Amino acid sequence: MTQPDTSVSEAAPPIPALDFFIDREPPPDDFFADAVAGLSQRQKSLPPKYFYDRRGSALFDEICALEEYYPTRTELALLADIGPELAAHAGPKRRVVEYGSGSSVKIRTLLDALSTPAEYTAIDISRAHLLNAATALAKAYPALRVGAICADFTDAALFQSQSTALTYEGAGLGQFLGFFPGSTIGNFDPHAAISFLRHARRQLGSDGQLLIGVDIKKDAGILNRAYNDARGVTAEFNKNILVRMKKELGADVDCAAFAHRAFYNEPRGRIEMHLQSLQNQSIFIGDHTFTFTQGETIHTENSYKYDSAGFSAAAAAAGWGRKAVWKDPQDLFSIFLLEAKS
Fold it and tell me: What domains does the chain contain, in order, with CATH numbers?
């Protein structure tokens, strides 16, 4: 990996308790442009990354605690169970990089399992949520070098930047271990998933490893319940993207005139989330008008599910080899440890 240019403007003022902070929060104009582009398509869509302002991140934390939503508790229990074996595979002094760190809950289980981890870098798009979580973690692990990068980790430019702080003060430290929990890889379509894995392979280096949570294909009833909880938290989370458009883009949109719709598309092996228009209506953003008929949807997110062979093939196409794979006893969820192939 090349050394960073530490003079770049992206280097933010120091944050108490953090060893470094890089602020690459996407500008609001990106949201405007992405909303206009997505709503102009035949199948209207909005990028799921815009779920995650402070409110959206808090709602997602609520989702993770729901009875119907099995991935979080299953992955946490599995991480705890495999700790000693994982530590042996990873080795000492790993420099851990978490993509989409959120509330930094699972990382504590990983850090506790590893043998003397040397560094932790949290990457997340929600600046306030990121700083709160990373600062709390730094205080909980005073011997660990902790930094944060506010950025869209799906942006290929992040992996090409000289200023991501991933190589700061690297002499004498161990190799990188990427951490991508929560089956977030499922939010990418298959081609984009391989692209992300390829970029991560390049960023984490020739001796890097990647620990990644992968949701397993299973009974459609279990999947549909997980994304249609009885309390309606997932529905509120889905509609938060409209709330943000109204608040941040000045959009004229009736949020109550859209309903949450999520279902398992078995032929494509994915959960789809949509916002369905309950009536004929229009959304106005700046000079743009987007007309909806009753029943028409905005496609907001996919969550692809994998079998072991399918994900192993995707990883191999991106330059990763499978070092280990673990599953819970109910075959609900899997964790892969990948290592860079020469």
Answer: 20-29+60-218+305-340 (3.40.50.150)
